[in-house]
């Protein structure tokens, strides 16, 4: 198996970041050469305000906001996630008193989990972690059962970045609202793959990052329902008059321009793109399982002693029910019944042959960097050791998938 040159690669790590599209590049290049500060009253400053107003209009229409929401540009979803949590906790302490309670899940992004843990360690809030089922899906009934009198926020991600499993966000939001609790969702992995009607989905706050949908890194959104802001008296975590006084700092106009370009490029023929991603996903699984036996994760769930077979097999993790998983995401595990398979070593082999994927865990399953998501779905070591995530993007082709499958199987035969 010949190694590829550094200039050639098959990029299959689009859940980590995506290639910036031409529309975003063009607009960013234009605006990065301008001297415009929105806070200035000169002609250049007014042009910047027009850009932001257009960006707000585009997002308002895309998400069916109908003017009922604040649209804040941030440095990315991590900032947005941390901001909404701190906003809610600060407001509760100031306006209600006592320690607030927040409900989340054990498969959230680290920006959510670590923010909550830091505040819990400081005795500023109580946290309930909802565990998913074996497919990484949260039962809305578990959320309802966890709500208390002092529950200040429910925050559940829309779709998981590793498993690709999609949550019942509309139902979760409805449950939260029935108990007068606001609902936040980290929509990083799904924003851009579907148009989200935020009011219809009962969402009070939403986080996202544009580098996940062919836009620039360092630009994200925090969308906040106006009645939520007013009712909780939410205040900025970064002081300043910009963005309705809810997020200070001079606006990143080149980044915002790139974000508007990403929205244009990403959502053009989106349904067709999603259908093509689904076809590529199916093709990839078909090509690999034609040579490698496939086994059901239910056999391994929460057990250290799966049935003993011979050789290697493949296990697909996460929900496999239509419309309950991201069309571009496959979390697979290579199971070796005879030896301790190591995904770190296997990934290095793929890297050498120009294939870029990620690993959701490490072959050293005691490693502190091992995936908390795999822990949450009770994956045993034999699963953790073999995990690879393949995440397709709009620029990937059938040739990419076929070449990946060939390289994958050839590499596997040497391990």
Describe the structure.
With 415 residues, the chain is an alpha/beta fold. The protein has two domains: 246 residues, 3-Layer(aba) Sandwich (Aspartate Aminotransferase, domain 2); 145 residues, Alpha-Beta Complex (Aspartate Aminotransferase, domain 1), CATH 3.90.1150.10. The chain is built from 13 helices and 13 strands. The strands form three sheets. Strands 2-8-7-6-5-3-4 form a seven-stranded mixed beta sheet, sandwiched between helices. Helix 1 packs antiparallel against helix 8 and helix 3 packs parallel to helix 4.
Structural key phrases:
415 residues; alpha/beta; Aspartate Aminotransferase, domain 2; Aspartate Aminotransferase, domain 1; 2 domains; seven-stranded mixed beta sheet; four-stranded mixed beta sheet; 13 helices; 13 strands; globular; disordered N terminus
């Amino acid at each position: 198996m010949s190694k590829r040159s550094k200039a050639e690669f098959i990029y299959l790590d689009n859940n980590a970041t995506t290639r910036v599209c031409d529309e975003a590049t063009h607009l960013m290049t234009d605006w990065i050469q301008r001297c415009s500060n929105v806070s200035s009253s000169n002609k250049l400053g007014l042009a910047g305000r027009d850009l932001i107003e257009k960006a707000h209009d585009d997002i308002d229409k895309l998400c069916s906001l109908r003017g009922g929401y604040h649209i804040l540009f941030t440095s990315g979803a991590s900032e947005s996630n941390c901001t909404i949590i701190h906003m809610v906790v600060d407001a509760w302490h100031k306006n209600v008193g006592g320690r607030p309670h927040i409900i989340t899940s054990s498969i959230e992004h680290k920006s959510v989990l670590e923010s909550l843990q830091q505040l819990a360690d400081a005795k500023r809030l109580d946290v309930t972690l909802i565990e998913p089922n074996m497919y990484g899906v949260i039962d809305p009934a578990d959320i309802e059962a966890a709500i208390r009198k002092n529950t200040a926020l429910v925050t559940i991600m829309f779709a998981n970045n590793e498993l690709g499993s999609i949550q019942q966000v509309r139902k979760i939001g409805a449950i939260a609202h029935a108990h007068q609790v606001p609902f936040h969702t980290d929509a990083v992995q799904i924003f851009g793959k579907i148009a989200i009607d935020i009011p219809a989905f009962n969402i009070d706050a939403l986080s996202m990052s544009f580098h996940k949908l062919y836009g620039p890194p360092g630009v994200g959104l925090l969308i906040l329902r106006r009645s939520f802001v007013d009712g909780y008296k939410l205040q900025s975590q970064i002081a300043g008059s910009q963005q309705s006084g809810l997020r200070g700092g001079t606006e990143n106009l080149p980044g915002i321009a790139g974000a508007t370009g990403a929205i244009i490029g990403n959502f053009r023929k989106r349904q067709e793109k999603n259908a093509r991603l689904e076809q590529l996903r199916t093709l990839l699984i078909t090509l690999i399982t034609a040579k490698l036996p496939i086994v059901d994760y239910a056999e391994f769930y929460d057990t250290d002693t799966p049935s003993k077979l011979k050789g290697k097999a493949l296990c697909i993790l996460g929900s496999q029910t239509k419309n309950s998983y991201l069309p571009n995401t496959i979390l697979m595990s290579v199971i070796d019944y005879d030896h301790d398979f190591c995904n770190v070593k296997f990934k290095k082999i793929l890297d050498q042959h120009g294939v870029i994927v990620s690993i959701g865990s490490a072959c050293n399953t005691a490693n502190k960097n091992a995936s908390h998501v795999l822990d949450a779905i009770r994956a045993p070591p034999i699963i953790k050791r073999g995990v690879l995530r393949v995440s397709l993007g709009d620029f990937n082709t059938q040739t990419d998938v076929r070449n990946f499958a060939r390289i994958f199987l050839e590499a596997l035969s040497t391990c």
